[in-house]
Design brief:
Layout (H helix, E strand, L loop, with lengths): L2 H12 L3 H8 L3 H9 L7 H11 L3 H6 L8 H6 L20 E5 L1 E4 L8 E4 L6 E5 H6 L7 E5 L14 E5 L10 E6 L2 E10 L2 E5 L11 E2 L5 E11 L4
Antiparallel strand pairs: 1-4, 2-3, 5-6, 6-11, 7-8, 7-11, 8-9, 9-10
Amino acid sequence: MNLSERLRKAMEASGTSQADLARACGVKAPSVHGWLSGKSKFLRGENLLKAARVLGVSQDWLATGSGPMHAGADIAQEHGLPSGTFRKVVAVDDDDARITLIPKVRLRLTAGISGFHVEAELGDDSTSTVPTHWMRDRGFKKEHLIAIDVRGESMEPTFYAGDTAVLNTADKEPVDGGVFAINYEGEPVVKRMTRDAGQWWLTSDNSDQRRFPRKLCEGDGCIIIGRVVRKESERF
């Protein structure tokens, strides 16, 4: 394989777009186009280091095609496993094109008010991260995504207290079985919406329905903030 073929293979495997690669390497789009079109035969210096890092491949393989594609592949071969069984884990910076930072917020609500205000979390827990290709593949826009901490036990085992839920605030259309963040009488809740007898209900995933009965969602007392599209949890 030549350079352009190796680049295309690595980009496809990692879900990295041409724009992602350009941003990660600090170059303009025509430079990446030159690499992919075959006009540029070599990658050297900082461009090689940055491209290998964002694509998650070894520098030797990307530059010359020699050795395993991934830095951990030789370890797999030593243990008699297929090449690529192991892959080197690399820490990423906040400005890495492979990730997008989503603000983690606290919701400030008032009963009967359709809008909502957010208060940014402070410190190390002020953002949540999502893969850029995940957001792009689903057509989500960064400005519509926020992350919140889930409270209480009503959505166990789907969500536990302290789990993080990522909301798409552009999606407020009720869906039977969908999980949404709701302004319920001035309180932020995460519930599953169900359709029954022509009405929308907020239901809990917790099996103890006596503690967490379903509630009717109607009027100004039940306003959708956004649909839950992703979760982060430390429970396995």
